[in-house]
Design brief:
Shape: globular
Number of domains: 2
Number of strands: 7
Largest sheet: 5 strands, antiparallel
Number of helices: 5
Strand content: 15-25%
Helix content: 25-40%
Oligomer: single chain
């Protein structure tokens, strides 16, 4: 198993447009964007294979609406937007057998993600599948993050939490969605794992 870095960036709806709506497709858009919206898994967007891909809408606690994020192979474990590539990390990814198998099977999905991440026009076109009123002018660049996605030797994405112990250390090796939602539960689990080590008497 290897952890491959994916750069996740997306867009947000520009100020003045947080309540964008339309009646062109009432079952999607008659309400304001006040809840999360995801594509149907059977829509052909790849959600069943890639749960972290596809356009979706999320209203944040401050009222702003995020569109995305997408997921593009990062050129380094900490290669955020504007950061220089880390070629050693990138080479390690490319030479991994599991990643190569994943890339051979799903290169089309990867190419679509790369193109949509570079083109606001294309991304807005994809977003219109959920909210037909969206236009390019409504989108501005949002935040960016790095997601470490575990890939098995057979090229499949590891879609569950992986937490392992090694000697006196505990490692969270994979925390896919809903990792953020489950972060407190993960923290409690890790605390339970390390509590015996912290209370163990030290040798004289």
């Amino acid at each position: 198993m290897v952890a491959v870095p994916f750069c996740q960036d997306g867009f947000s709806i520009t100020a003045g447009d947080p309540n964008l709506h339309t009646h062109s497709r009432p079952h999607f858009c008659q309400e304001r964007l006040n809840s999360r919206r995801f594509a149907n898994p059977s829509s052909g967007w790849g959600f069943l294979l890639f749960p972290f891909l596809g356009v979706h809408f999320t209203r944040r606690i401050d009222g702003t609406v995020e569109v995305g994020p997408n997921a593009v192979l990062a050129l380094g474990r900490e290669q955020y937007r504007g950061s220089p590539p880390v070629w050693g990390d990138f080479w390690e990814t490319l030479t991994n057998r599991g990643f190569r198998r994943l890339a051979r099977r799903h290169w089309r999905a990867g190419l679509r993600e790369m193109l949509s991440s570079r083109s606001t026009t294309l991304y807005s076109r994809l977003a219109r599948r959920l909210v037909p009123a969206i236009r390019r002018r409504h989108l501005e660049r949002g935040g960016v993050g790095i997601r470490a996605q575990a890939i098995a030797p057979d090229g499949s994405l590891v879609d569950d939490f992986v937490i392992e112990r090694a000697d006196s250390t505990t490692h969270v090796l994979n925390a896919p969605s809903p990792g953020a939602t489950a972060s407190l539960a993960i923290g409690r689990y890790v605390a339970e794992q390390i509590r015996p080590m912290l209370t163990r008497p030290r040798p004289d």
